[in-house]
Amino acid sequence: QLAESGGGLVQAGGSMRLTCVAAGRTFNNVPMGWFRQAPGKERLFVAAITESGTPTYYSESVQGRFTISRDNAKNTVYLQMNSLKPEDTAVYYCNAGVGSMPENKQVWGKGTLVTVSS
Question: Which residue, 19, 33, 58, 103, could crosslink 95 as a Cys pair with Cβ 3.0–4.6 Å?
């Protein structure tokens, strides 16, 4: 129901935009988020956005470099990533319901791999 795209290989200092499209149902009435999981590590929160688009929330590690946004007319959430660092390398997952739905009710995409080379 959630499909991420936009991952790939980028050099350190570069930019990339991830897209998450909802299909089959709408998530316009729930907060949306991005999480990431680096190799051998647990999945961690990256950013979240409320139903209306404001406010937004970020982890300390991406604050000031990443921007989350949404287009409810397109059932789409974006993650603009600037000034990328090798430590940003991870599989990035889109989430629906973060902070508002029980964990077993939240919806996840399958993830898209972002690799940042030094």
Answer: 33
